User: Fold this.
Amino acid sequence: MDLETFLVSLYVLIDDWWRADRPATARKPGRPPRLTDSEVLTLAVLAQWPRFRSERDFWRFAHAHLRSYFPTLCSQSQFNRRVRSLALELRAFQHDLARTLAKSSAVYRVLDTTLIPAIVRVRACRKGLFACDERPIGDALIAQDRHDVYLADKGFSSVEWERYWLETYGALVAAAPKNSDRRAWPRAARRWASGKRQVVEGVIDQLKDLFALERHRAKTLSGLLTRLTAKIAAYTCGQCLNDRLGRPLRHLADLLI
Assistant:
């Protein structure tokens, strides 16, 4: 898509969701915002697209080229405050959009996590003081998603956790044990599972490579969570637009020309 087609398609996607999900309410007292909520979410998602080196780079581009679409464009600081105030709505939008892409016939879903540097990159490691246990994170994801079966890697393998997920959520988590474990899977099963997990690993690689998931430049926790949400929402929007165009879902590098 060219920029104009992409921008209009993105706005329609977001505004249609906003109008369907949120009934009209009485206007609050005071000066009306310069941008509507749908416009703010559209710009927040567009800012994460790979063609922009940073949010500051996007903001310079927006002031130079997007005034005809957003004539009442506010300052960057005002915009950032608006985006943070809409973080929950942005997350809900991404979740709802992802559900439209999920196939109801899918027998299982693939589960994985990845580390994101929050302070400095050297602290994002799997050993030492800042080590990350994937299973509590997986628990939060399963509690929200509530699917029946998940395929996960060794980081989720645990008799106690697997029993807990089954009893609490009715979710069967098939996590490949270590090869030295007494529960180790046969080689053919490990090879099959490794191939299936390439899907989620490919998604994570695209988020890190195309959408700069690790280069968020956030200075506060709220800013970090908002920017991560915007990046994942941008990725999901790209998949949704590809689906409507009849393109492979993860062909995102050339979606916006």
Remarks:
- The mean pLDDT is 88.
- The longest strand covers residues 149-152.
- The CA atoms of residues 82 and 208 lie 25 Å apart.
